């Protein structure tokens, strides 16, 4: 499946599920002094997570151009050393500003992966925050993921925020692909490729570091296009996928 087809399938799937498609915003964010570059799909919508009633659409899907070359989300130190990091990449995202919650997005994400991308279930596993019994129960009891393939982790892995400063944040659930790299055992994290992060925006971190609950919980997801392409095209390195190879040739 080409990168172009992956983009199209993602957009059309979420449009069918009630989302409005919006084009990628600029790489240099407007009216945001906290960032030099747009580093995630949620950046253009930060104000709506804080004030969902002001959002022109309650659900949105995008393919956002991102640059991670500084700040908390900085991939410069990994580029060239791993097969999965870039300074520039495209993030497939869908967002809810109070329209639905973690249960709905977990079900939608799984349907997209299994029905649209045709990924085999036995090659997938998920992580949830150690405190998030709700997400764990949805994955295990409703989606039917084997409990052995659901891993509970702490803040370092499954709590997402824009950075160290104030802003919307929340626990997350990540979806991983088993690369089956013979160099690594099944318990080695290097064997697993994280390709989709489902963030449950339910908190706000203030300037002093304190957390409070948002009045209206929201959803923010991000899927790396290049990583998904590497999975579906059977490549061990993102740079071997179709769009990179076109540029390289």
Number of helical segments with 4 or more residues:
7
The ordered string of helix (H) and strand (E) elements is HEHEEHEHEHEEEEHH
Taking the alpha carbons of the first and last residues, their distance comes to 19 Å
Structural class: alpha+beta
The rough form would be described as: globular
Topology, element by element:
Elements: H1 3-16, E1 20-21, H2 46-50, E2 59-67, E3 88-96, H3 102-116, E4 124-129, H4 133-143, E5 150-153, H5 155-158, E6 159-161, E7 167-178, E8 192-205, E9 211-224, H6 225-232, H7 242-248
Parallel strand pairs: 1-2, 4-5
Antiparallel strand pairs: 2-3, 3-9, 4-7, 6-7, 7-8, 8-9
Helix pairs in contact: 3-4
Short description:
The protein has 249 residues and is α+β, with helices and mostly antiparallel strands.
Explain what the structure shows.
The chain is α+β, with helices and mostly antiparallel strands. Helices cover 26% and strands 29% of the residues. It contains seven helices and nine strands. The chain has helices at residues 3-16, 46-50, 102-116, 133-143, 155-158, 225-232, 242-248, and strands at 20-21, 59-67, 88-96, 124-129, 150-153, 159-161, 167-178, 192-205, 211-224. Strands 1, 2, 3, 4, 5, 6, 7, 8 and 9 form a nine-stranded mixed sheet that branches. α4 links the parallel β4 (124-129) and β5 (150-153). α3 crosses α4 (133-143). The protein is globular. The model has no long low-confidence stretch (mean pLDDT 92).
């Amino acid at each position: 499946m080409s990168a172009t087809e992956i983009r199209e399938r993602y957009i059309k799937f979420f449009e069918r599920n009630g989302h409005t498609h919006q084009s990628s915003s600029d790489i240099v964010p407007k009216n945001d002094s906290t960032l030099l570059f747009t580093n995630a799909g949620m950046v253009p919508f930060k104000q709506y997570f804080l004030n969902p009633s002001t959002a022109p659409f309650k659900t949105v899907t995008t393919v956002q151009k991102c640059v991670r070359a500084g700040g908390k989300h900085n991939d410069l130190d990994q580029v060239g050393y791993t097969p999965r990091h870039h300074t520039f990449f495209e993030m497939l995202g869908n967002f809810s500003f109070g329209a639905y919650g973690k249960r709905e997005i977990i079900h939608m994400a799984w349907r997209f992966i299994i029905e649209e991308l045709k990924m085999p279930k036995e090659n997938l596993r998920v992580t949830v925050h150690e405190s998030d019994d709700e997400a764990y129960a949805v994955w295990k009891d409703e989606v039917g993921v084997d409990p052995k393939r659901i891993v509970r982790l702490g803040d370092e892995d499954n709590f997402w925020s824009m950075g160290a400063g104030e802003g919307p944040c929340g626990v997350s659930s990540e979806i991983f692909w088993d690369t089956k790299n013979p160099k690594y055992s099944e318990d080695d994290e290097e064997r697993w490729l994280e390709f989709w992060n489902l963030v449950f925006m339910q908190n706000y971190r203030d300037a002093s570091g304190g957390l409070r609950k948002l009045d209206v919980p929201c959803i923010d997801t991000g899927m790396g296009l290049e990583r998904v392409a590497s999975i579906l095209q059977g490549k061990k390195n993102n740079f071997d996928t179709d769009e990179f190879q076109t540029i390289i040739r």
